[in-house]
Amino acid sequence: MAPARKLVMQPGPIEFSDSVLQAMATPSQSHMSPEFAQVFQETLIKTRSLFKSSNDSKSQPIVLAGSGTLGWDLVGSNLIDSPEEKILVLSTGFFSDSFAQCLQLYSDNVDILSAELGNVIDYSKLESHLKLKNYSIVTVTHVDTSTGVLSDIAKIASVVKKISPSTLIVVDAVCSAAVEDIEFDKWELDFVLSASQKAIGVPSGLSISIASKKVVDKVLARKSRAKNFFANLQRWIPVLVAYESGKPAYFATPPVQLVHALNVSLNSILSVPLDERFKENLKVSQDFKAKLGKLGLKVVPASGAETSALTAAYFPENINPAEFLSKVSSKGVELASGIHQGIHPKYFRVGHMGVSALDHTNGRDDVQKTYEAIKESLIELGYTVPTK
Amino acid sequence: MAPARKLVMQPGPIEFSDSVLQAMATPSQSHMSPEFAQVFQETLIKTRSLFKSSNDSKSQPIVLAGSGTLGWDLVGSNLIDSPEEKILVLSTGFFSDSFAQCLQLYSDNVDILSAELGNVIDYSKLESHLKLKNYSIVTVTHVDTSTGVLSDIAKIASVVKKISPSTLIVVDAVCSAAVEDIEFDKWELDFVLSASQKAIGVPSGLSISIASKKVVDKVLARKSRAKNFFANLQRWIPVLVAYESGKPAYFATPPVQLVHALNVSLNSILSVPLDERFKENLKVSQDFKAKLGKLGLKVVPASGAETSALTAAYFPENINPAEFLSKVSSKGVELASGIHQGIHPKYFRVGHMGVSALDHTNGRDDVQKTYEAIKESLIELGYTVPTK
Predict the structure, then answer these.
(1) Which of A109, A229, B80, B216 is the most buried (most CB within 10 A)?
(2) Which intervals hold domain Aminotransferase class V (chains A, B) (predicted)?
């Protein structure tokens, strides 16, 4: 009766390591015990390292029960003081637009600067927007999971800093943290939000962020009524500061087992230099994309705008999306369907992050297995692979 | 180096069964797969049963990543339309007051009717409040974890229905679901919120609620701007309805492993009639309280107002709280300190829910072990146990 285990090769949740799954089964532990405080302390310190931030004078890591979506509310409810504030959302797909929808609950002045499908935003348009209006926040989705487009955060941050130095720079790193480079201190970012279930390699259920000192000071100084309770960083920051110093504190019960799992996954992620990890994942991604190219498939992102985290590729002509995904699934590999408005029936998405991309012990090669399932499925559906 | 495992006997997180912990380690599964949709479907149906609601024409179960605290925002942001609305919070302790603090973010008219310490509210005062103002919502904390006081929901609901039938009745069941009786349909409740880590017996990380048809209709008909994104039930209800019909849908990634764990725990909870479970836990609680009484300890709640979920007991004279808790902890049992304003250094709290109260396989008796640790610690700290 039990369905066979399938390889989860969608852009999140990804496959989890055995050690992370073991940590999920950590027996009960009091959230107020010194033992848990030590684990949470280690986890917060490593979360800061993941974003290449040096120390607590620069940044505050934030780990809460929730999801990537909750991170958008953290931004909206804590960084926007009044609905008059002007926000600029740089959009490279469905998830950027969803972030904008969230921010529209907190501001009446959310502008969206959209890139062309599959491409990064036009920097000259960004410059003219910044010159025209005084934006309090610019948001950018590092990897839009809907299109697989990688935005150049260093470049965008430098443009914003040059023209509008007081504007806060917010990065949605849900699908980029632990697979694409994020230099929180160096690029002078203000808020980066992520989640557990993508390249960070931990089951869904955690909202993982980092805030700059500037944001922390702004939040702690706020006198106006908070916009909600659970996502109120004025409540959480003192609790997180206490835990990072090794002392338990209470606002709402933290997800103890997920924090253990995050700690274990960050141990693994930080066991080699991050840049090596990114380089290795880039190679896996390039090889996979090249192989799909040889099959005659075209990827959604423009050349130079492809993330290492996933591949979004168009179906060949005459391939039925549902039939294809179901056939690949029957071969033991779960892919994701398209989600970006307008083109969603025309393409599919493959995640290649975490252990699936990087763990080759005992001959493991999830990405190769995925490629073979895709190729065989296409052939079985009548597709003729180009001979050259 | 690794600290020895301690029995977690605080009022949440509680001890988890092996089968629940195994479910926490469920290998990755797509949140959009038919396999997960089936598990989430089963889980939602059983969540409705937990609250003794009969079917989807009566109620909508809600399971989200979060915590008990997030449940307060679900109420505030979805059930309160305007800051002019009058809300009455019935308070039996710290957690009732915290719920009021959350609601004060959404309404300018939150009245608090506080019970005397350790007691339930005065019903004649409730009646006069309801006659004086037109409250849109009355909230009651079923078991205030700070005091161990059990409120009589049936009684309160009948008073509200009699005097102000249109008022929504909201119950905070964080520390009561699965240990105290909740008759959602029969008592005509409108919203009950809970969390995973107490009597429901699942690691922290889930917000678990149930909404009446009246609330669902109100939420779905709302035209005004939502107050936040993640906790917006207008977004979640269609997704939860889809999952309950066995079909995946997407708003934010659900916490797949925690949902599996909840499914497993609800299987166990619902394997015997709920009333038998409550009766058995009541007996465990009464025995434990009687034993503490024989030791000369006085409980915080008044006679008849004690919950089965936990025991809040005053220290004898000359016992130092920190020394006591640390001594009990050194005997392998974790208790919780007092938290209620004014008396918090004078008492401690013991949780006796879930497997710790009810699992006696292989001679297991967590509550007895806890009693012995308490007694020995008191004696070692110089306390003389009364001889009669």
Answers:
(1) A229
(2) 24-350
